[in-house]
Amino acid sequence: MTDRLDILGDAPAGKPVHRRTFTKADGRPLRLYGYAPHTEAPIQEEDGDVAKGGELRWHPLRQEWNIYAPHRQNRTFKPSAADDPLAPTKIDGPVTEVPFTNFELAVFENKFTSLHKEAPQPQTVVGVESAVAKGHCDVVVYTPEQTGNLYTVGQAKRRLLLSTWNDRYEDLFAQGSEFVLPFESRGEAVGVTLHHPHGQIYAFPYVPKVQRDAAQGFQDGYDLAAHMKSCRLDYGVADAGGVDAICPPYARFPYETFLVPRRPVKGPWEFTEDEAAGFAHLLGDMTRRYDTLFGQVTPYMLSLHAAPKGLESGWQFHAKFYPLMRSPGRIKFLASVEQSTGAFTVDVMPERAAKELRAL
Prior knowledge:
Elements lengths: L2 E6 L8 E7 L5 E6 L20 E5 L4 E5 L36 E5 L20 E3 L3 E6 L13 H20 L4 E8 L11 E7 L4 H11 L4 H12 E5 L2 E4 L10 E5 L11 H22 L5 E6 L12 E6 L1 E3 L2 E2 L4 H6 L8 H9 L2
Helix pairs in contact: 1-4
């Protein structure tokens, strides 16, 4: 069993970040991050079976790998608050994924993982190229509270989250991952089955097609920071610490927003203190703006796009918010033409979206 306390080097605003690395009874790693060292004794867990990933199959017409993980059909589905698996464990209650009565931020390996370092050999399928789905999938629990979002958790927690992402980037790349994607899916319209505030991290054994194409664009000379700077007047939403929130003129979703550092960096681990604070602020600020604009908890997809291994040349880090609303009470669905061709039909002009979000 591993149970180790460390202090991370990328402490925000002079505050040290402490990390406790703990091995759960079923063998999965659990990491607790906080501004105070976590030393509480664990509550006794029961051992259990853990899925070890699925398999990869190559799509010859789309030129991309797909992940097949049928065991995920059995993952936890919309539990009651009393059965929340991401909450701290209560002394007199069932043991949750975090066998402690309190924590600041927790990261553990997904029990229903798609990618795993010990993934099984794939099935043999005639005429289809298959591969082992090696990799890693984390669940990132933002807070012990069962409700909240990236805005309400506050700046200190967002800075802690950024330090956590940077720590996981370092570890997962060191383990051989080709691309690491921290992300958040928010709202039932996106398919969320656990309402506790959380995100995830996928560490891929290959560079996905979207990132391969983006890397090619950067290598061909596209300067994201310079382009967004030229668009700032008409497409800018907000800025903080040298980072812009901006609706790109080529947005595919209504109200889609990028977070783009004005100084190109490969990943958030290269941020200055001001950039880190600004980026963290904008994560919460965009969540607030979306909820205010649509008058509801806005379903969205958030993802962080740092340089893939081996494709760092010219890469510029950015984060993307894809909200699934096109107006209050109306969801943006992907229609047949979009699914079939990749040609999105956008109902709201990006310059209008920026103007409305900026006004909030």
